[in-house]
């Protein structure tokens, strides 16, 4: 397939595009507040399996029951250098919850908006009044 054809893009690349669309939209509205914030997509969250009977999630994780959907990592110092804030969206748990591509796009938007709201200490409705 030619690269211009949507089918030539993997599901992971299509998911990245959904996240990027939301991030670009939010950065237009919250340019100053989101300057330097990194956004990332990971397929699945890392889970510590040393205690299989109990899954304990950090308080910075957005979850659905015990399944992490996204995570906010606040800015911090590491090895003497500043590490910027980071929002990580987990692709597979969101894809599993979506019924179709439109549902996935809505879910991605809700999750990214929620995580930006957590990072900025605001209500999600203030971050994205259209949501």
Automatic annotation (TrEMBL):
Domain of life where this protein originates: Bacteria
SUPFAM superfamilies the UniProt entry points to: Metalloproteases ('zincins'), catalytic domain (SSF55486)
Family matches, as Pfam families: Zincin_1
InterPro entries reported for this sequence: Zincin_1, Zincin_1_sf
Protein name in UniProt: Zinicin-like metallopeptidase
